[in-house]
């Protein structure tokens, strides 16, 4: 039986050309698999047909939208995932679910090798391959763009020579990766980091400088997960999609940063994640009233470590699993409502309520009837400041500057 290779297929130029390249280089048959993580764009049937037209022996589409939202985006939300304080790990969250489907397909089609279209300069090759090796150590991986040195020019030339049914995008200068959690745009004139993004870079968001009237909404969370918007029940996928729509209209969630890739390169990225950024802002504020102070402080460290592990392709690692357990435990009481105003590029929290609130009006108020014993503060400060006071006295006695 001829060997089979399962290729993670996007429908774009590189992976379309990869079908033929892999077959020529290895003599194996290529099974193309497209994973729907809510990237939108072309109909998946069109993509499937294109894979077959490009020479795949089988092509199929896995609908992973709910799985992606429930099992990847929601853990990201619980961790308030913002790499370098800014990037909600859009591409990083999608790689492990795609890898999972690749591995399942390899088993189903009896393939010993899987393949992806990443270059050798990015994070995504690492994420795919570390995920694959964690799930199925026996599988081999081939990355034609990297391993067979498939350049963009060569790919276009190959597609034209073989009359592959693809829209050759000689003029589209950007490398784009998108899913329901957001959209990443890089390369082209954005590589000059002084150049501002032009209008055509954006797709999920409108220009925040000319917003429609303000949009007020209430997001209800249960244990850290959005369960209703304005009182209407939603699944995680629906929540993200609805907020992409409403926050996107207001130009919320545009991000422009130079980020530290795992491979050591600093790269300029423009992201749009209207739903993700709105949800994270709401979730963080709900945590502010429901998490105990020390737990909240420690969780910020855990969130950041979790985020770096996920960015670095360690989704299936032991440490990430242990941090998940901690984060899940903290979400026990993160239930309640957050009211927000979406307007002109900002998602602003204006109200919060929860049965589990730790905010105590009677403790916080400066009005009559407050229950906090201010006279106790004096003694607390005397003891709390004692060790610093002692150190300063010693330094003064001996003439040290500190
Ligand atoms: N730099 C981002 C990351 O590593 C996005 C990469 C997405 N790929 C792309 N072709 N734009 O998560």
From TrEMBL:
Task: Tell me the residue numbers annotated for binding ATP.
Answer: 8-16, 117
Cleaved signal peptide residues: none
Q: Which reaction does it catalyse?
A: L-citrulline + L-aspartate + ATP = 2-(N(omega)-L-arginino)succinate + AMP + diphosphate + H(+)
- Residue positions annotated to bind L-citrulline are 87, 123, 127, 175, 259, 271
The UniProt entry's GO biological process terms, in alphabetical order, are:
argininosuccinate metabolic process; L-arginine biosynthetic process; urea cycle
Instruction: Read off the lineage from the record.
Output: Bacteria, Bacillati, Actinomycetota, Actinomycetes, Micrococcales
The record describes its quaternary structure and partners as: Homotetramer.
Source taxon at top rank: Bacteria
Annotated EC: 6.3.4.5
- Domain Arginosuccinate synthase C-terminal residue range list: 174-390
The protein in question is named: Argininosuccinate synthase
Entry keywords, A to Z: Amino-acid biosynthesis, Arginine biosynthesis, ATP-binding, Cytoplasm, Ligase, Nucleotide-binding
* InterPro entries for this protein: Arginosuc_syn_C (IPR048268), Arginosuc_syn_N (IPR048267), Arginosuc_synth (IPR001518), Arginosuc_synth_CS (IPR018223), Arginosuc_synth_type_1_subfam (IPR023434), AS_cat/multimer_dom_body (IPR024074), Rossmann-like_a/b/a_fold (IPR014729)
Localization: Cytoplasm
Report the principal subcellular site: cytoplasm
The family database entries (PANTHER family) matched by this protein are listed as: ARGININOSUCCINATE SYNTHASE
Species annotation: Brevibacterium mcbrellneri ATCC 49030
Q: Where does L-aspartate bind?
A: 119, 123-124
User: Which biological pathway?
Assistant: Amino-acid biosynthesis; L-arginine biosynthesis; L-arginine from L-ornithine and carbamoyl phosphate: step 2/3
Gene Ontology terms, cellular component aspect?
cytoplasm
Give residue ranges for domain Arginosuccinate synthase-like N-terminal.
Answer: 4-165
Q: Please name the gene that encodes this protein.
A: argG
Q: Which SUPFAM superfamilies match?
A: Adenine nucleotide alpha hydrolases-like (SSF52402), Argininosuccinate synthetase, C-terminal domain (SSF69864)
Q: Name one GO molecular function term.
A: ATP binding
What the record says about family reads: Belongs to the argininosuccinate synthase family. Type 1 subfamily.
Q: Which NCBIfam families match?
A: argG, PRK00509.1
């Amino acid at each position: 039986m001829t060997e089979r290779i399962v290729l993670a297929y996007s429908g774009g130029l590189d992976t379309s050309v990869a079908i033929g390249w892999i077959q020529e280089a290895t003599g194996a048959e290529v099974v193309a698999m497209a994973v729907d993580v809510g990237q939108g764009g072309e109909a998946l049937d069109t993509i499937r047909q294109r894979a077959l037209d490009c020479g795949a022996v089988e092509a199929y589409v896995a609908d992973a939208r709910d799985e992606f939202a429930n099992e990847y985006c929601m853990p990201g939300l619980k961790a308030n995932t913002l790499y370098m304080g800014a990037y909600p790990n859009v591409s990083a969250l999608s790689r492990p679910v795609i890898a999972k489907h690749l591995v399942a397909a390899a088993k189903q089609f009896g393939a010993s090798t899987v393949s992806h279209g990443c270059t050798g300069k990015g994070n995504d090759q690492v994420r795919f391959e570390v995920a694959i090796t964690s799930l199925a150590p026996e599988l081999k991986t081939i990355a034609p763009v990297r391993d067979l040195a498939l350049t963009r020019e060569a790919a276009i030339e190959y597609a034209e020579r073989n009359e592959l049914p693809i829209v050759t995008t000689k003029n589209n200068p950007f490398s784009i990766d998108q899913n329901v959690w957001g959209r990443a745009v890089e390369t082209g004139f954005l590589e000059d980091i002084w150049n501002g993004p032009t209008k055509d870079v954006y797709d999920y968001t409108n220009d925040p400088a000319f917003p429609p009237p303000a949009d007020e909404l209430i997001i209800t969370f249960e244990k850290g997960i959005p369960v209703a918007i304005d009182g209407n029940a939603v699944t995680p996928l629906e929540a993200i999609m609805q907020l992409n729509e409403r926050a996107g209209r207001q130009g919320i969630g545009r991000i422009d940063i130079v980020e530290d890739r795992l491979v050591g390169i600093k790269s300029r990225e423009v992201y749009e994640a209207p739903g993700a950024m709105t949800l994270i802002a709401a979730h963080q504020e709900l945590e502010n009233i429901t998490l105990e102070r020390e737990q909240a402080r420690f969780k910020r460290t855990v969130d950041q470590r979790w985020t770096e592990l996920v960015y670095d392709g360690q989704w299936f690692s032991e440490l990430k699993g242990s941090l998940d357990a901690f984060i899940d435990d903290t979400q026990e009481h993160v239930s309640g409502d957050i009211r927000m105003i979406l307007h002109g590029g900002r998602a602003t929290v204006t109200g919060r309520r929860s049965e589990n609130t730790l905010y105590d009006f009677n403790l916080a108020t400066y009005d009559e009837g407050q229950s906090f014993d201010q006279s106790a503060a004096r003694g607390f400060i005397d003891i709390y400041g004692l060790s610093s006071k002692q150190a300063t006295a010693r330094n003064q006695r001996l003439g040290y500057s500190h």
